[in-house]
């Protein structure tokens, strides 16, 4: 009957249901966020659990699925989750950052509702409030291709998620107090693979099993807060097939540098003698190397893993060369049937160039991190809500930084940092890192073309070195010390979008900004209305709801 929607609910697992509509399928989740005690490094400590899991549950979705996820906050602090890499088309209301959302207060719940529209790939989710990310609450989010869309490799025997992260034995509250008191974070206590570090005493349970001769997909993500982590598997090579939503040219690697916030998918074939093998991760670019390992077991295996671990590469020139080896697979189809390479980004004229230079300041004894001299603070009223309700002028100012900062960054100013961006402009963003430490940046709401990373400082002449043919479209990019990185993208997704350092102490202390992308039509064709269940706080609480957008 016309106008009638039939919906069938199928229980998949604890906390998950699948709904089948006349439209794209719905996945329903109920998540209970609590504190719990775990001993990831052998010392009992407080961690953040989701449904009693650390790391949190995997979200296993398919292109265009609708995700309805009810989060109950049973912590003693406000809490938010972001879905890093999910583009939230027309829907920054669901982004889960403090510039778009009021946090979920203790003892209350909020239901996220978003669609993984026209996307595939491997991603993570994590908390964006305080230093919660250092305590857990993170996990894997995969978007599988629809059955109708060919994938450029055979179906693997199984599909595994590997969450890497650096780890502190201090609580998130202690780490936050260090930062609030003006101190920076020391090096982490250790590193983890899926929340664990194998002891190597013969009693370790395997993280994964493989059948001899079969090929497996491993989705490897760095959910940490400070360190690049190198990943390798004893005796096995890895064929890279996807990163952050793009199929890539399938090069084979013995080791991969996974920078903070980044995700890779690799294929691994069980073609070695049947026994145990270690997967290994270790910190990069530090004098003291921290290492973790986990066991992969062959199903007919006889014998322990060798105690001799494969060595990590040394220096960042190796890592830069690895970045340059990554290429977009121009003939493969991603979420849509047309080949990825049918989008010729290299032939589009750049309409605006923005150079973002990171800096640190200790003026007044308080450590702050900044972009172009502005250290962002989140106002009590989320920026998107203030803009939507027409009271932006009472909460923040637009364009407090210049597109091209002066050669010397002066005194750091602490205030909300919001850029206005013209809808559908094609923009070049340069990240310039004058410091001696690594950087990793993420942009919400978009993927971008990572066209160059080079040592030194950027000038317009450097454009001749850009990869304008097959740079990978992704959501996170690293910047090496005393180096720069360039990205290109079309700002065609209306909303309020966060650009942030993935080094979470830097984000917490201001190294982030927001880009306001408004459609001139204020139409539902370009952006959704505020959800009925949106949490309200700050200056918009109690205000009448603005007139909704229409077609």
Automatic annotation (TrEMBL):
Database matches in InterPro entries: Cu-oxidase-like_N, Cu-oxidase_2nd, Cu-oxidase_C, Cu-oxidase_fam, Cupredoxin, CuRO_1_AAO-like
Keywords attached to this entry: Glycoprotein, Signal
Domain of life assignment: Eukaryota
Signal peptide (from-to): 1-22
Domain Plastocyanin-like, first and last residues per copy: 32-146, 158-300, 381-520
One Gene Ontology MF term: copper ion binding
Pfam families: Cu-oxidase, Cu-oxidase_2, Cu-oxidase_3
Similarity field: Belongs to the multicopper oxidase family.
Record-given protein name: L-ascorbate oxidase homolog
Organism: Populus tomentosa
């Amino acid at each position: 009957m016309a106008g009638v929607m039939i919906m069938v609910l199928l229980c998949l697992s604890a906390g998950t249901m699948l709904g089948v509509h006349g439209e794209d399928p719905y996945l329903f989740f109920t998540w209970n966020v609590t504190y719990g005690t775990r001993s990831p490094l052998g010392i009992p400590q407080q961690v953040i659990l989701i449904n009693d899991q650390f790391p949190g549950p995997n979200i296993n979705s398919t292109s265009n699925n609708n995700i309805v996820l009810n989060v109950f906050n049973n912590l003693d602090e406000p809490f938010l989750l972001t879905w890093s890499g999910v583009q939230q088309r027309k829907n920054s209301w669901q982004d889960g950052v403090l510039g778009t959302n009021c946090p979920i207060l203790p003892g209350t719940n909020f239901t996220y509702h978003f669609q993984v529209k026209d996307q595939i790939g491997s991603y993570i989710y994590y908390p964006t409030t305080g230093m919660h990310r250092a305590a857990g609450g993170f996990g894997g989010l995969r978007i599988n291709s629809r059955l109708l869309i060919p994938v450029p490799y055979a179906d693997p025997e199984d599909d595994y998620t590997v969450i890497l992260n650096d780890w502190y034995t201090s609580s998130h509250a202690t780490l936050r107090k260090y930062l609030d008191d003006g101190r920076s974070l020391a090096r982490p206590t250790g590193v983890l693979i899926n929340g664990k570090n194998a002891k190597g005493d013969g009693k370790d349970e395997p993280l994964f099993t493989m059948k001899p001769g079969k090929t497996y997909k491993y989705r490897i993500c760095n959910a940490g807060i400070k360190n690049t982590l190198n990943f390798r598997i004893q005796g096995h090579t890895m064929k890279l097939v996807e990163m952050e939503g793009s199929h890539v040219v399938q090069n084979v690697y013995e080791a991969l540098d996974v920078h903070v916030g980044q995700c890779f998918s690799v294929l691994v074939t069980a073609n070695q003698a049947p026994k145990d093998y270690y997967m290994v991760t270790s910190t990069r670019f530090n004098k003291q190397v921290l290492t973790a390992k986990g066991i992969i077991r062959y199903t007919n295996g006889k014998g322990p893993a060798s105690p001799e671990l494969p060595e990590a590469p040394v220096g960042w020139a190796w890592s830069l060369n690895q970045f340059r080896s990554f290429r977009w697979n121009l003939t493969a189809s991603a979420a849509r049937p047309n080949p990825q390479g049918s989008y010729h980004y290299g032939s589009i004229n750049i309409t605006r160039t923005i150079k973002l230079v990171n800096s640190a300041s200790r003026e007044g004894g308080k450590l702050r991190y900044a972009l172009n001299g502005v250290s962002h603070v989140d106002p009590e009223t989320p920026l998107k809500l203030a803009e939507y309700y027409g009271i932006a002028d009472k909460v923040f100012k637009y364009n407090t930084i210049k597109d091209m900062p002066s050669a010397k960054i002066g005194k750091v100013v602490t205030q909300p940092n919001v850029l206005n961006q013209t809808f559908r402009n094609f923009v070049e963003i340069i990240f310039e890192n004058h410091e001696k430490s690594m950087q990793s940046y993420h942009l919400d709401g978009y993927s971008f073309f990572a066209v160059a990373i080079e040592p030194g400082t950027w000038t317009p002449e450097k454009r001749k070195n850009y990869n304008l043919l097959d740079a990978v479209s992704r959501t996170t990019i690293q910047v090496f010390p005393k180096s720069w990185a360039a990205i290109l993208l079309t700002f065609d997704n209306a909303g309020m979008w966060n650009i942030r350092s993935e080094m979470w102490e830097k984000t917490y202390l201001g190294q982030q900004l927001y880009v306001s992308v408004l459609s001139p039509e204020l139409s539902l064709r370009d952006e959704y209305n505020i959800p009925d269940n949106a949490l309200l706080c700050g200056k918009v609480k109690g205000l009448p709801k603005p007139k909704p957008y229409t077609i």
